[in-house]
Amino acid sequence: MAPMFRTVTSVLLCVSYLFFGFCSADDPYVFYDWNVSYITASPLGVQQQVIAVNGQFPGPIVNATTNNNLVVNVLNNLDEPLLFTWNGIQQRRNSWQDGVLGTNCPIPPRWNWTYQFQLKDQIGSFFYFPSLNFQRAAGGFGGIVLHNRLVIPVPFDKPDGDITLLIGDWYNRDHTALRKALDNGEELGMPDGVLMNGKGPYPYNSTLVPAGIDYETINVQPGKTYRIRVHHVGISTSLNFRIQNHNLLLVETEGSYTMKQNYSSLDIHVGQSYSFLVTMDQNASSDYYIVASARFVNESLWTRVTGVAILHYSNSMGKATGPLPKPPDDYYYKSFSMNQARFIRRNLSTGAARPNPQGSFMYGRINVTDTYVLKNMPPVVIDGKRRTTFNGISYSAPETPLRLADQFELTGIYKIDFPTRTFVQPPRIGTSIINATYKGFLEIIFQNNDTTVQSFHMDGYAFFVVGMDYGNWTENERHQYNNWDAVSRSTAQVFPGAWTAVLVALDNVGVWNIRAANLDTWYLGTETYVKIINSEITDRTELPLPDNVLYCGALASKQKQQDHGTSAAPVAGRRLKVFALMLLFVAIAILF
Ligand SMILES: *[C@@H]1O[C@H](CO)[C@@H](O)[C@H](O)[C@H]1NC(C)=O
Ligand SMILES: *[C@@H]1O[C@H](CO)[C@@H](O)[C@H](O)[C@H]1NC(C)=O
Ligand SMILES: *[C@@H]1O[C@H](CO)[C@@H](O)[C@H](O)[C@H]1NC(C)=O
Ligand SMILES: *[C@@H]1O[C@H](CO)[C@@H](O)[C@H](O)[C@H]1NC(C)=O
Ligand SMILES: *[C@@H]1O[C@H](CO)[C@@H](O)[C@H](O)[C@H]1NC(C)=O
Ligand SMILES: *[C@@H]1O[C@H](CO)[C@@H](O)[C@H](O)[C@H]1NC(C)=O
Ligand SMILES: *[C@@H]1O[C@H](CO)[C@@H](O)[C@H](O)[C@H]1NC(C)=O
Ligand SMILES: *[C@@H]1O[C@H](CO)[C@@H](O)[C@H](O)[C@H]1NC(C)=O
Ligand SMILES: *[C@@H]1O[C@H](CO)[C@@H](O)[C@H](O)[C@H]1NC(C)=O
Ligand SMILES: *[C@@H]1O[C@H](CO)[C@@H](O)[C@H](O)[C@H]1NC(C)=O
Ligand SMILES: *[C@@H]1O[C@H](CO)[C@@H](O)[C@H](O)[C@H]1NC(C)=O
Ligand SMILES: *[C@@H]1O[C@H](CO)[C@@H](O)[C@H](O)[C@H]1NC(C)=O
């Protein structure tokens, strides 16, 4: 689009949103146009179909500042439905834009749909990804960098650069093949590798890495300090992240500033995000390895599941050589990783998105109003299908999004009877969600009865990760909670045979997804929703239905067809029509 036209549209867009009560006029807008399509790539040397945004894999970085209004116009050029979700972004009062099946109808192939929401009261490192049909295993993901407003102090000096690194386990099969395997009741087996920013490993060992693979290089200047934002966008394998000879100074995780601490390596679980400050304090006798290797597995069998990128000093005198830096050697010491996680603490004396310190919200003094123990188990066979469960219920997404069903007072779409602690026997498939109290204070215990590490994520919120331990949770465990400086984040790991307790203040009205972040576990049914309604009649606690809402399921008849041309020309035509329509709105607005 021509820049001039773009500016005019931006202003008009804002005016027309104002007309519908959407935006706060003084907060700037950030616009993205995303054309989502398949491209072919060979990240591990095998040609396959991946999902690209504007031809890029991974997708472009969303770069914005607290309180900005984000407008993302998504054109779905895949051959299947599409939704993007914004991992860790707390869409205040606006679950309409969350991009999961409980709140949104999928964008049909060849259609476009525009997300619009305010990045309220948050800073930090997050990512987006396509939420349907196992698509994340094929790409479509990208980083979100959410800067603080200039008036807000940051607990470290401004870094010399800002680098996003997306890491994740990867298969050479595309997402449709992986989906088919799961639908057939098969396990996915060992991944074929680990990608870093969509690229395969540097050839650190010619036996292990086939020739001709494109690898990621991070270019740096000696003596400078960079903020490296690492996101685990992968499928199901926990990864150990490290940079040869360099300290990782942890400063932030999913929107909480942490007490600064140096690590030689850190375990990063599926769906988690961390920011490190890394100072280029080594002599440049060579390049250095950046490594993400499979964790809690027999490394001699899993050697191929290792991502390797290159840290290249501008004055480097040679290539990185020799063995990779060693991972933690704790095969027989299962508490190492858990202890590492427990010692990640919030810096209470600094603000995050607001000037008041993170410690001013004394979560430890608030009384819990509801407790849910959410237990997951290894897959079971239900009605002849291999499925996973939460409290014995394997979630089945209805054709009509839950939030839309409520809006139009449709009943019978879901049940609001999710069990607080009991485990439903025998396990069943159903659409059962949690009834929560607006302004309540919810305690959730994730109890992992599976044999692998799982991480769990909640949309619309950050929760305080107050405790984790091996064994079965009982109320006595509350004595060991961290009621003082736990980090607040949106994705927490739960070790096998262990529990993780989180606390969350229910101040964001809407219907919000709680799910396994591990893609296979999620796909097979480990998820539910929390419905948080304000029983007072007011329009302040939740934004109205967006005017571009898509309809489907029982509401499909309300959906107007979209004129979806196959060439670029009709799109331009459509833009002009919308432009004219907006002019009309402006005229009406002026008249009033
Ligand atoms: C979107 O990308 C597809 C595939 O690259 C291309 O064919 C199509 O023309 C693009 N559409 C627009 C509107 O840019
Ligand atoms: C991201 O946004 C910040 C603040 O608006 C700006 O300073 C920076 O240059 C942007 N970075 C990129 C890569 O666009
Ligand atoms: C589709 O894209 C056009 C221009 O790119 C935009 O004007 C229009 O609002 C979009 N339609 C929807 C439903 O988002
Ligand atoms: C905590 O935040 C304060 C205030 O910004 C900062 O001065 C201090 O260095 C931080 N402490 C640690 C350990 O990160
Ligand atoms: C490369 O990897 C193979 C298989 O793990 C190993 O036997 C060999 O020693 C490695 N070579 C080097 C140079 O490290
Ligand atoms: C972290 O390590 C760096 C050297 O890489 C050192 O300068 C710094 O003081 C350490 N910071 C902390 C908080 O330990
Ligand atoms: C640079 O550092 C490496 C690793 O610490 C060391 O082996 C090497 O001798 C150093 N080279 C110079 C020129 O200082
Ligand atoms: C890892 O696997 C190898 C090969 O099967 C086996 O010899 C070794 O004992 C295993 N290591 C551990 C710690 O189980
Ligand atoms: C929390 O509960 C305790 C005991 O039930 C009660 O004494 C206290 O007043 C409550 N605190 C608040 C802030 O409601
Ligand atoms: C859900 O909870 C609210 C109070 O928080 C209560 O008024 C309502 O009856 C509950 N609904 C169901 C179906 O349990
Ligand atoms: C946890 O509870 C289950 C029954 O729900 C029991 O089979 C198991 O042995 C318990 N585990 C521990 C470590 O107590
Ligand atoms: C899972 O639960 C079963 C019985 O309920 C118990 O025997 C087993 O030890 C548990 N496994 C884990 C990893 O928690």
TrEMBL record:
GO cellular component annotations of the record: plasma membrane; side of membrane
Keywords on record: Cell membrane, Copper, Glycoprotein, GPI-anchor, Lipoprotein, Membrane, Metal-binding, Signal
Primary localisation category: membrane
Signal peptide (residue range): 1-25
Residue span, Plastocyanin-like domain: 36-149, 162-316, 400-535
Membrane topology: Lipid-anchor; GPI-anchor
Superkingdom assignment: Eukaryota
Cofactors demanded by this protein: Cu cation
Compartments where found: Cell membrane
GO MF annotations, alphabetized: copper ion binding; oxidoreductase activity
Pfam family, one: Cu-oxidase_2
Keyword Nucleus applies: no
Family affiliation: Belongs to the multicopper oxidase family.
Protein name: Monocopper oxidase-like protein SKU5
Source organism: Cinnamomum micranthum f. kanehirae
